[in-house]
Design goal:
Layout: H1 4-10, H2 21-28, H3 36-43, H4 46-69
Helix pairs in contact: 2-4
């Protein structure tokens, strides 16, 4: 039985905007193949871009924390 994230990524991407947060998180995680048309539609939406930027900030912070915990500062 797959996870809920997997079920999002194997389904057809939603029509947007607005884009569901779950879809944007899956897209950010690389669960959707690169599709120039889809990416163009997503990045044309300022709210989606802001959300993706925030996800990247969180990912960057988690990477920094992981390096710090391993003593790789």
């Amino acid at each position: 039985m797959g996870s809920e994230s997997e079920s999002h990524a194997t389904s057809t991407p939603p029509d947007g905007p607005p884009w569901p947060p779950e879809f944007l998180a899956d897209l950010h995680a690389g669960l959707y193949p690169d599709d120039p048309e889809l990416l163009g539609r997503v990045y044309a939406d300022p709210d989606a871009v802001l959300y993706l930027e925030k996800l990247e900030q969180v990912a960057d912070e988690l990477r920094r924390l992981g390096r710090s915990l391993r003593g790789e500062d």
